[in-house]
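Researcher: I'd like a structural prediction for the single chain below. Treat it as a standalone chain; there are no partners to consider.
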Amino acid sequence: MAIQVSVCGPRDCTGEDESNAREVGRLLAERGAVVICGGYTGVMAAVAAGARSAGGTVVGVLSRPDREQANPDLSVVIPTGVGEARNGIIANSGDAVIVIGGSWGTLSELALAMRRGRVPVVQLGGWRILDREGRPVPGVRHVSSPEEALGATGLWD
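Model: Treating it as a single chain, here is the predicted structure.
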């Protein structure tokens, strides 16, 4: 069975997040991983384009009940009709979760992946979660490049 990596990030993202997502997608595809994402614009579109450029498979788990507005670089489209609840499906489907950038939806995916507790959660850019004393919350693996993001998953050790 192929390794599956969920990549989460905002639909309205920075140029840096877009570039990082495209590279993460390409690197994942080169390693034969299936990319799972939300299937729309921003980080989701960039990771899909990166993976497809390297011949990879990309699964888009859509919030809508139809394929409208789905990214054209998706290999498989799953229209759920469950709205933002699809974030739980995305967070639960990967052997690792890579979070790129930050938004409220992205934060919910990070939280769901951390709550799941069974897979590595890697964050590249975006928001930093702090505890009540202002310290980084343990468990999230913070990295500064796409290459480090893949390495931090531990999937190819």
